[in-house]
Amino acid sequence: NNLLEFAALIKLCDVLITSDSLALHIGYSLDVRLIAFFGPTSMTEIEIADKDLKIAPQMDCLCCYKNDCDFKPNCMDNIQTSQLFKAVKEILYKC
Questions:
Q1: What is the pLDDT of residues 29-81, one digit of tens each?
Q2: Do residues 63 and 40 make contact, with C-beta atoms less than 8 angstroms apart?
Q3: What is the spatial distance between Cα 82 and Cα 17, in angstroms, rounded to a whole number?
Q4: Which of 3, 39, 58, 60 is most enclosed, with most CB atoms within 10 A?
Q5: Which residues pair with 15 in a beta bridge?
Q6: Beta carbons of 36 and 43 less than 8 angstroms apart
Q7: E strands, 14-65, where?
Q8: Which of 53-87 are b and which e, b meaning 16 or more Cβ less than 10 Å from the residue's Cβ?
Q9: Torsion sign across C-alpha atoms 17, 23, 24, 27
Q10: What is the separation of C-alpha 55 from the centre of its chain, rounded to a whole number of angstroms?
Q11: Which is nearest to 7 in space by CA: 32, 35, 22, 26?
Q12: Sheet harboring 53-55: ordered strands across?
């Protein structure tokens, strides 16, 4: 998809679950409800609306910006789908 098509697809979402990526920034700019998950990037550097949620695992090595991790399981593996599902339900019940 080109950029406009990608943005149009994001706008169709009831809730966008995304990493710290272009999708996050497009979703935020289009006022789509967001669940943003973080690991090697800094969640404190990213502003989201009060209606949205940030998720990060409990690890001391977060925000390392490494492409390859020395830890097993790594930060992204420590984000559970059950956490994301719970967050979706929380956001959908807020509205």
A1: 999 999 999 988 888 899 999 999 999 888 778 878 778 888 788 888 889 99
A2: yes
A3: 13
A4: 39
A5: 33
A6: yes
A7: 15-19, 33-37, 53-55
A8: bebbbeeeebbbeeeeeeeeebbeeebeeebbeeb
A9: negative
A10: 7
A11: 26
A12: 15-19, 33-37, 53-55
Strands (E), the chain: 15-19, 33-37, 53-55
- SS3 of 95, please? coil
How far is residue 13's CA from residue 36's CA, in Å, rounded to a whole number? 14
pTM comes to: 0.85
What's the pLDDT at 31? 96
